[in-house]
Design brief:
Elements lengths: L2 H123 L5 H15 L6 H18 L3 E10 L2 E10 L3 E6 L5 E5 L4 E4 L5 H12 L17
Antiparallel strand pairs: 1-2, 2-3, 3-4, 4-5
Helix pairs in contact: 1-2, 1-3, 2-3
Keywords: Signal
Protein name: DUF3450 domain-containing protein
Pfam families: DUF3450
């Protein structure tokens, strides 16, 4: 092979190596760009994954909260249901009581009228202690029974209260002014009653005294031996002197 041929071959080989290196550099650059794109795409994908994960975590927390609220609401609804059931039982009980009130009224109203009638008869047969006051009380009860604005319970309460007042007349000592019939003439006197044991009357000038005879339904004049005791008894009841032992005309108990 001639020298010129060798030189030419060498030059051609150099150019071939140079071209090959240039091609390799271009391919490497392209690979690097593609790799960068892949990394960028991977980074974006990772961001999306992170975002989706965070959203899923938030949804999970929200779901658990909703589940807890649902459970709490179920417990609360069960509690409210038990209260409603208890209230319904109370309403049913009240309704039964209301239904029975009418039946009770039908029995208690006639009873009250009988009680008032009995009270009136008792007053007329009893010693005339505060007689007019007691008669007026009976009349008020009758007016009350005819008043539609007064409840049955209030009517019954006042009837019972009238009976209690009658009980008190038999347990107290009292003195008050009034009038009695003496031989057809009306005379003002000071009354004295020791419960229902004794009912006396003293003239205002303290010169005469009378005792009520309930069996005869009349006033009887007392002898002078009881006059001083009657005066003291009236003063004791009025509170002007302290209580003390007295000699009073008291009817003996009969069998």
């Amino acid at each position: 092979m001639s020298k010129r041929t060798l030189i030419a071959s060498t030059v051609i080989g150099a150019f071939a190596l140079t071209g090959s290196a240039a091609v390799s550099a271009v391919e490497l650059s392209d690979l690097q760009k593609e790799d960068a794109k892949i990394h960028a795409a991977a980074a974006k994908s990772q961001e999306k994954i992170n975002t989706l994960f965070e959203q899923s975590q938030e949804l999970l927390v929200e779901y658990r909260s909703v589940v807890d609220q649902t459970e709490n609401l179920k417990i609360y609804n069960d509690y409210i249901a038990s209260l409603v059931a208890d209230q319904q039982r109370g309403i049913d009980s009240l309704q039964r009581q209301i239904d029975s009130i009418e039946a009770t009224k039908q029995g208690i109203v006639p009873l009250m009228f009988r009680m008032i009638d009995s009270l009136e008869k008792f007053i007329e047969l009893d010693s005339p202690i505060h007689l007019e006051e007691r008669r007026e009380r009976v009349q008020r009860l009758r007016d009350l029974m005819a008043n539609s604005n007064v409840t049955v319970s209030e009517q019954f309460r006042q009837v019972i209260e009238a009976y209690l007042v009658e009980v008190e007349y038999g347990t107290k000592m009292s003195s008050y002014q009034g009038t009695i019939d003496v031989d057809g003439a009306e005379q003002t006197v000071d009354f004295f009653n020791l419960g229902r044991t004794a009912l006396l009357a003293l003239s205002l000038d303290q010169t005469h005294a009378w005792v009520w005879n309930n069996e005869a339904r009349t006033w009887e004049l007392l002898g002078d031996e009881y006059l001083a005791s009657t005066v003291i008894a009236v003063k004791m009841a009025q509170g002007t002197i302290p209580p003390d032992l007295l000699k009073l005309p008291i009817e003996a108990a009969a069998e």
